[in-house]
## 1
Amino acid sequence: MDFISHALWGGIVAGRKSKKHFRQAFLFGMAPDVLSFGIFFVMVFGGMAERPDFRIEPPQDDIIPQIIFTLYNYTHSLIVFGFLFFLLWAIFKKPIWTFLAWGVHIILDIFTHSEAFFPTPFLWPISDYYVSGIPWSRPSIFIPNIFLLLFIYAWFFFWRKKAKF
Ligand SMILES: [Zn+2]
């Protein structure tokens, strides 16, 4: 899924309590991609990696440096996520619920990445198992995703306030 959708899903699932919580969940929601693909784009920008051709579908992954795959394994594993969740809990002496946005990101990616391009290694490092899902760039996923987000945010900002849930 694109990182803006991830951030919006993270925000609405794990950050509804206040604006501060929303900002945190929004950032946690996009973090798994920012800390993997984001770094790749910084490398491309800095001339350290070749620029991929996005007109090719699926995008070529053979020019992506190995470090990005490694980072992707770390940031898209539910096992690493669980470990970090409890680590943050131990550090802050309370569960950081907004961090669940990170887990939501992984769960959405499991079903919206096919084996052709970065299938989600959600059981890494214990297992390389993945689900070959439907790529999020397909209109059958991308368009309903936008409408679902619009609908949920409309509910959150308008109807919910009126109905006083
Ligand atoms: Zn992702």
Note: Residues 32-33, 76, 105, 109 surround zinc ion (CB under 6 Å).
## 2
Amino acid sequence: MDERPGRPPRRLAREEKTIAAMIALYCRDHHADVVGPDGGLCGECSALLEYARLRLAKCRYGADKPTCANCETHCYRPEMRARVRAVMRYSGPRMLRRHPVLTAAHLADRHKTPRTG
Ligand SMILES: [Zn+2]
């Protein structure tokens, strides 16, 4: 086990990877006219990803947290929460086909119970 302070636990690294993939998928299908042909995220989606990363890093549940969508602690600002929910609603089902392993792990994490303290 290599979980030194300052390094995100693997569990959080995986969620970060999942949310990044979901945002990328959503952005490409919704904001293609903004980002141009070279890909990458538009400004709005980059900001959303940055925000999601920050929330993950500060999450009080740490490695035992459920996925953000199922978390009882609503740490997102309402506006950001609405955006990330739209992303998950759109990309969730599509992710299963594109990233089956990542998504299966994500779904399995949903059933974890948050432990406080
Ligand atoms: Zn976008």
Note: DSSP finds five helices and no strands in the chain.
## 3
Amino acid sequence: MFVDKAKIQVTAGDGGRGCCSFFRAKHNPKGGPDGGDGGDGGNVIMRADRNLATLCDYIYQPQYKAGRGEHGSSNQKHGRNGEDVILRVPLGTMVFDDESEVLLADLTEEGQEIVVAKGGVGGLGNSRFKSSTNQAPRRVTPGTVGESRTLLLELKVMADIALVGYPNAGKSTFISAATKVHSRIASYPFTTLAPVLGILDFKDYSKAVIADIPGLIEGAHRNVGLGHAFLKHVERCRALLIIIDMGAMDQRDPRNDYAVLLNELASYDEELAAREKIVVANKMDLPDAKANLTKFKRKYKGLEVIPISAKDGIGIEDVVDKIHDVIFKDQER
Ligand SMILES: Nc1nc2c(ncn2[C@@H]2O[C@H](COP(=O)(O)OP(=O)(O)OP(=O)(O)O)[C@@H](O)[C@H]2O)c(=O)[nH]1
Ligand SMILES: [Mg+2]
């Protein structure tokens, strides 16, 4: 199950108490204070892990508590520190403090970490308070309390390029042909219900991440269809790969499809619509596709359109080359 939002409660461990104790032995009945300090409480840490793709674990288990520090003990024994809890989250997870709505971290790189709840500090044992004027202190301090807070996690997938198109346009067919991932393909709309990430391997051995996202339809920005819940996953992409069903398998006019898609993107976010776009005419194997493409080009003069048949694997390489150019041209800037 794909989950891109979760609310969790994190509590760090409390610090252990300092110990009050005096050393006593037969030969040394007043050996002096020997109470050790308490251990520090464990932290709750969040770490980005590229092997994860969803926040779904956090829906099932929304509460986390790190270990408390042990109390100090006699013989100057320091209490053991509490164990940290490490919460792994997918790349692209944004961590907000639920109450203040402040963004605490945007975990975009593999291994990136943030302490989301700091453990309490261990208290001091009575041996710490020994002085020239007080040889037998009874004073100790308690450990401090571990931090506790509610967090809102929000995942926005990290990809270099996102597939945008109507349902059934062939986005999943394309990603399955161009990468090693298999995204479910079927002849009914909204087959893809959650983003799927694939890796594009270019000829020069560089790589890019491509995201297949659920199809957009007119009104998506108003949440029609699967709506803009998924448009947010396009936000971080450097470029958009717009796939048009040029065979008009679902009896729509491809020229109109393109206009609607641009409009949906712009209604969601102007900046998103202004992003670099690669336009692909899919299903060129279908009978009407050629004529439709001619009409399409007549309407959108000067627009580069790459004809492909994702199903037959024709033209995939041209698109992959184009993606490479767009992404790496971008990086040089
Ligand atoms: N003839 C033909 N059919 C295609 C081509 N590409 C995809 N299809 C078919 O179109 C239908 C939809 O393909 P998908 O790849 O699932 O489409 P999608 O854009 O991912 O659809 P959603 O996930 O619903 O948004 C399937 O029946 C595919 O077999 C193509 O190049 N030619
Ligand atoms: Mg799909």
Note: The chain has two domains: 1-155, 161-332.
